[in-house]
Amino acid sequence: MSTRFKEKIVDGQVLFDNVTPQLTDSPQLAADHTSLGSSLAQARDLQGRQETVKGQLRDINQQRLQVAKQTDDLRRRLRAGLISVLGPDSTKLLEFGIKPRRQKVQRVRLTPAAKAARAAERAVARAAVLAAAEKPKEASAKPATP
């Protein structure tokens, strides 16, 4: 509820109450005075209904949080049950949207000699690339003979 709305209701009620004694002297204000009174009654009714609905909204939000928590708990339990039944490594878990545990891949450990041979191969390949890059420069450096 905005305070502006509440202020308008209060201001309207003050005006309504203060104009009431003047109605005998100014009967032309009676129609607007009566309309203001019914409008203020409607505004207070709407304000009360809004407070009621706010309370209902809080209850609904609380229920949503409880259901979400319960859903998460049940989902975790079901997931754990499937893993215990099928096994943590089973690819059948994928059908249920559960990632199986990663398989350990045994990497081949290179001996120091194999590492040195690989490094030498890479060095030769790098030298070939550099040499290929140098050839066009040498060709363009030669003067063209007519």
Quick synopsis:
This protein has helices at residues 3-19, 30-86, 112-141. By secondary structure, it is mainly α.
Molecular structure report:
By secondary structure, this protein is mostly helical. Helices cover 71% and strands 0% of the residues. α1 (3-19) packs antiparallel against α2 (30-86). The protein is elongated and about 115 Å long.
Layout of helices and strands:
Layout lengths: L2 H17 L10 H57 L25 H30 L5
How far the N terminus sits from the C terminus, by CA atoms, comes to 94 Å
Would you identify the regions where 5 or more consecutive residues have pLDDT less than 50? none
Pattern of helices and strands: HHH
Radius of gyration: 42 Å
Tell me the major beta sheet.
none
| Overall 3D shape | elongated
Specify the helix fraction band: over 70%
Q: What is the number of strand segments? A: 0
Number of helices: 3
Task: Name the features.
146 residues; single chain; mainly alpha
